[in-house]
Design a protein that fits this description.
alpha/beta, seven-stranded parallel beta sheet, 15 helices, 13 strands
């Protein structure tokens, strides 16, 4: 049995975590098994599922709890666990690439950096320090890693530009199980009944962790403007996070409590998307979010900020708008874009674009076993 170590902060239900789990579910686990090395508090949403699929989950203290302790933990871990055929480090920046250093020290042959973002959150504590470290670590990339992956051109440029390896970097699509998201009228009716949504109500959908980057606060402004002409419009928010209380307060201040649905973290995103009419993502920046691929698979027209990679438009059904435009302008465009696109069947388009999880699995397996 060959094993690959997936390295990330935790196993909460976020974009890069969902990507890793989609691959884990689809890979032939009789040939390749995953383990996870995490640097955040235990108890992530996917941990029990990962264990049930055969993964070992290991924890080390995060770097911000002490630089020396972090390095000692990495050294101790890889000195005992160096039989992996590959490590796959999922990162949003080059702030911390030390796991690859120790993997190299102890002889792990394939060491992968995988970029899942295109910038550093300005809301992040000491974000300027993270930015400095990101650029200081660029000269080390070629010596620490053997493979350089990213989810979009923006993500590849952010991570590998000025490293000397940008030309070698490969795009790996955020593949999903496309059929799972295919539009289903029966499920749509069930979910709408569950949340008290009327058959004729217009539902704006959004899936994402509640953090400043995702900009859910702007979605509330959009709904408020939309209510001027469409009082029955609703906002369906899937996820949780640090800014949820702030968003709930704004919803209350605007008197929209009956029009905004907070589902919390859910394992049935494909099902919830059936109840939506359009998907809106006003993020300040992104790589290529898994949720935007899922939305297209569900046949949802998408309105997204133009800071998100244009590579994400796989079906011709995404409208990119400036995040500087007004909420009123966004609300008008959302209605017009839905009327123009309806509910298209995008499954075959996504497969042809290479965004089926089976295609992504083949690409990664070839990297893991050294064929690329």
């Amino acid at each position: 049995m060959k094993r690959v170590l997936q390295i990330m902060g935790g196993l909460k239900r976020g974009g890069l975590e969902t990507f890793a789990m989609n691959i884990y579910r689809s890979i032939d686990r009789s040939e390749i098994q995953f383990d996870f090395l995490l640097t955040q508090v235990a108890g992530g949403d996917y941990e029990e599922e990962a264990k049930s699929l055969g993964a070992n989950i290991y924890y080390i203290p995060p770097r911000n709890k002490g630089y020396k302790a972090y390095h000692k933990a990495l050294d101790d871990f890889f000195s005992k666990h160096h039989d992996y055929i590959a490590i796959h480090e999922h990162i949003s920046s080059l702030t911390s690439i030390d796991p690859a250093y120790y993997a190299k020290k102890y002889g792990i042959p394939v060491r992968i950096f995988h970029s899942h973002s295109s910038s550093i959150q300005k809301s992040l504590r000491l974000h300027w320090v993270h930015t400095i470290l990101h650029y200081l670590n660029k000269p080390k990339v070629h010596s620490y890693a053997t493979h350089y992956l990213g989810c979009s051109d923006k993500a590849l440029d952010w991570m590998y530009k000025y490293t000397g390896v940008r030309s070698k970097a490969l795009m790996v699509n955020n593949g999903i199980n496309c059929e799972q998201y295919a539009y289903n009228k029966i499920i749509r009716a069930e979910v709408r009944k569950e949340f008290g949504i009327g058959d004729a109500d217009f539902v704006i959908g959004h899936v994402g962790r509640f953090i400043p980057l995702k900009n859910q606060v702007f979605l509330v402004d959009i709904l408020s403007e939309l209510h001027r002409s469409m009082p029955s419009a609703k906002l369906l928010l899937v996820g949780e996070g640090d800014t949820m209380d702030e968003i709930k307060t704004k919803v209350s201040d605007k008197g929209l409590e009956k029009s905004v649905i907070f589902t919390g973290v859910r394992s049935d995103v494909a099902r919830l998307m059936q109840a939506m009419d359009i998907f809106v993502m006003p993020s300040w920046f992104e790589g290529l979010p898994v949720s935007i691929v899922e939305a297209q698979a569900a046949g949802l027209p998408v309105v997204a900020s133009d800071t998100i990679s244009y590579d994400s438009d796989l079906t011709g059904t995404i409208l990119f708008k400036s995040i500087k435009d007004s909420a009123e302008d966004w609300s008008k465009c959302i209605v017009e874009w839905k009327e123009k696109n309806g509910r298209p069947n995008n499954i075959e388009k996504l497969k042809k674009a290479g965004f089926d999880s089976k295609t992504t699995v083949k690409q990664l397996v070839n990297i893991y076993i050294g064929n690329v």
